[in-house]
Every structure is written in structure tokens, then in C-alpha cells.
Amino acid sequence: MSGTVLFAGVLMLVSGLLEVFRGIMAIAKDDIFVTTPQYVFRFSLTSWGWIHLVIGALVALTGLCVLTGMLWARIAGVFFAALSLLDNFLDIPYYPLWSLVLIALDVFVIWALCAYREPERLPRGPEQVPREV
What is the average pLDDT across 109-130? Predict the structure, then answer.
């Protein structure tokens, strides 16, 4: 596993857990959230809480799979990080600083998963080894 994949997996775990905590705070109707009366994507605070909780759990679980080196997890990780990024962008008016931090983490995850390259393998077998003259 390369360093960028390890970096992405750990960031996915951290951002997924932050997203889950944010969802729990919203479901519990914490008064730390800002209300905006005329926001286009306005849902109830409980609805946003469940959205964050589900997406956060998916990101964290996918991060665990990324750490185990699964190819499908790297592909799903890009998708779920992009979904989390969009979710946090739409939720900026409710908790701006937390949203911006999670957007930054999601950008780093997408970069790290997309920058991964398979390591080059050495040739095996006598027909592929150059002979000395």
C-alpha cells in the first residue's frame, strides 16, 4: 500500500467520524446550528442530521476498506468523498466552519485516491531476465 492510499484511508476515517458526530448533534437538535429562513436547500435539522450520519458512516466504512487495500474501496472512496463534499457544501449555512473543514478533508481524500499508482513489478521467469553476454 502506498503512502497516499494510507493517507486517504486515515482521512476518510477521520472525516467520516466527524460527519457522524455532526449528524448526531443535528438529530439531537443542538442549538449550535444556524438557521437560515430562505435557503434553497433548507431541510429540517433532523433531516440534515440523518443525511450526515449515513454519509459519514459510509465514508468511514469505506475508509476502513481502503486501509485493507481493496481496489473497489478506492473507487467507492472517490465517490463517497465527492458525495460528502457536496453534502457539506449544501450544508454550509447551518455550520460554516465545520463544513469548510470537511470539504477540505474530502478534497485531500479525492486527491490521494486519484494520485495512486500501482507499483511496478519486477520481471519473473528466465525468459524475461536479460542475459549477460
Answer: 71
- Per-residue model confidence as pLDDT tens digits over 30-57: 666 666 667 676 667 788 889 999 999 9
Task: State in Å, rounded, how far the first CA of the chain is from the last one.
Answer: 37
Cell numbers standing for residue 113: 485516491
CA 60 – CA 51 distance, rounded (Å): 14
97 and 60 in contact (C-beta within 8 Å)? no
Task: Please state the separation of Cα 73 from the chain's center in Å.
Answer: 11
Entry pTM: 0.78
36-43 CB contacts, 8 Å cutoff, 24+ apart:
36/93, 36/94, 39/93, 41/90, 41/91
Domain boundaries, the chain: 3-34+43-114
Q: Which residues of 57-76 are buried (b: 16+ CB within 10 A; e: fewer)?
A: ebbbbbbebbbeeeeebbeb
